Amino acid sequence: xxxxxxxxxxxxxxxxxxxxxxxxxxxxxxxxxxxxxxxxxxxxxxxxxxxxxxxxxxxxxxxxxxxxxxxxxxxxxxxxxxxxxxxxxxxxxxxxxxxxxxxxxxxxxxxxxxxxxxxx
Length: 120
Description:
The protein is an alpha+beta fold.
């Protein structure tokens, strides 16, 4: 399972890089959780949660980013910012990339600004 997740996250990073984002970190671990991707979009910092579902029968990937998960992502982002002071004053957003279908060639639905830190 972890291998498939890593492959889907790498494919998502390539997809976002193709749209002009630049990868800073992947699987950035913090005490509170893990940030799948940390990217730069112009002058802004983007924390990306990648959610893979083979199908959307039980809801899409974005639906699985519930309030608890959002809080953990916000805490992990705070940890990342504390560890990388050069980004402390940088505008940030939280995106979700839904990946579905064949894990070797997933389809992506990129939800920019999927939630705000004060929503978590």
